[in-house]
Design brief:
This protein is mainly beta. It has one domain. It contains six helices and 22 strands. Strands 1-7-16-15-19-20-14-6 form an eight-stranded mixed β-sheet, covered by helices on one side. The protein has a six-stranded antiparallel beta barrel with strand order 8-9-10-13-12-11. A five-stranded mixed β-sheet has the order 5-21-22-18-17, with no helix packed on it.
Length: 377
């Protein structure tokens, strides 16, 4: 079935079993120096150094998560609004770029999932346009669809709806599978959702969610989370990345999540001027969070308004996806190499038809590695 076209513009801002379990997050920081992404010195408090440190949550109990998410709680969970940031007067600030050589690692397609053919709209190479020649805060053309094709076709099979609790509230975000037992999402979905500097709990990842939990796929509980201290402590959206280590037994399939869904490749330190397919489960009006929405857009411009704290500027594309889409993957070379190279994250208050992502430099490799994907960063 062909996807149903929504628009080329438009905008809006914005259970499984029984009892809740309160989990207190243990904050552990991990020093990151150069290409290293694990090890380092632990401490009990988050660092605020602009060089960045990784911070982990306490491990979560999968059985308690499965008991917590009753159908009623899932139906009542609210979308995390796409964070909106006021425009500054300084425009685009110079803030670095790649933090090392451009690299990419392949994903995985399970034998029972047919890979999508290459899309003619997706380039096979990388563009060379520089941000200073792009049109800052201009409308970025995009095309947006409800994705009504088969969800159980790779790489769309890796896209998931995320349920979680933060500061006493139940929320939804979007996510994607990044390794056999690793899921990627926005930092503000794993921690600091309402800027109270807390890790999320009761994390549940449901791939191929289609007007409800897919009965052939089920859901998996999060086991632990990792993000950057510059997001957790300093609210820097340029560091707003989140990795989740998953339970190895889901509600339907008692195996690692990536064995059922496959997982995306990962690309970092590439030029910004790419063509992206952005996926998510937007639940804020006019959407209802029941289906995957896909946005196809070329890179528009970069911006430092996300409080970059020493990180590179964010990357903007055209999109009107709303609350609940946060963390949904930006797939580069969709239909061929299927690299994760960004995610739905934030927009400007005066530019509702855009979506920004942290630039994926070496830090993206470090987050994925810390969450459990073995990578040399």
């Amino acid at each position: 079935m062909k996807p149903s076209k929504l628009s080329s513009k438009g905008a809006v801002w914005a259970g499984i079993l029984g009892t809740p379990v309160l989990l207190v997050a243990l904050l552990v920081t991990i020093g990151v120096s150069g290409a290293a992404s694990k090890g380092g010195t632990s401490s009990s408090a988050a660092s605020t150094q602009s060089t960045g440190k990784l911070i982990r949550s306490q491990p979560m109990n999968a059985a308690a998560t499965y008991r917590y998410w009753t159908p009623a709680r899932m139906a009542a969970a609210k979308p995390v609004p796409v964070p909106a940031i006021a425009e500054s007067q300084h425009g685009v600030a110079a803030a670095g770029g790649p933090s090392g050589p451009a690299r990419a690692v392949s994903g995985y397609v399970p034998a029972n999932l047919r890979a999508l053919p290459a899309s003619p709209q997706s380039p096979q190479g990388s563009g060379g346009a520089r941000p200073d020649v792009e049109c800052y805060h201009c409308f970025v053309p995009y095309t947006q669809y409800y994705y009504f094709a088969r969800y159980r076709t790779y790489p769309v099979s890796t896209v998931a709806k995320m349920f979680f609790t933060n500061n006493g509230g139940n929320y939804v975000c979007s996510a994607s599978v990044q390794y056999t037992n690793v899921v990627w999402t926005a930092g503000h979905c794993v921690a600091n959702t309402d800027f109270t500097h807390q890790f999320s709990t009761n994390v549940l990842i449901c791939p191929s969610y289609n007007a409800g939990v897919n009965p052939a796929v089920g859901c998996w509980a999060g086991g632990g989370m990792v993000t950057w201290t510059n997001w957790f402590s300093n609210n820097s959206f340029e560091w707003d990345m989140g990795g989740i280590t998953m339970s190895n037994c889901g509600t339907v399939n008692c195996t690692d999540i990536g064995n059922v869904t496959g997982y995306l490749g990962l690309a970092w330190n590439w030029p910004e001027n790419q063509n992206y397919y952005a996926f998510g489960y937007p639940q804020g009006s006019p959407f209802d969070g029941r289906f995957i929405v896909t946005t196809n857009s070329q890179f528009g411009y970069e911006d430092s308004d996300g409080n970059n704290q020493g990180g590179p500027n964010s990357v903007a594309i055209g999109s009107s996806q709303t609350g609940g889409s946060s963390g949904g993957p930006w797939v580069w070379q969709f239909g061929t190499n299927n690299y994760l190279n960004g995610h739905n994250d934030w927009r400007h208050t005066a530019v509702p038809e855009e979506m920004n992502s942290p630039y994926f430099d070496t830090r993206a490799c470090q987050i994925a590695n810390a969450a459990g994907r073995p990578l040399t960063c």
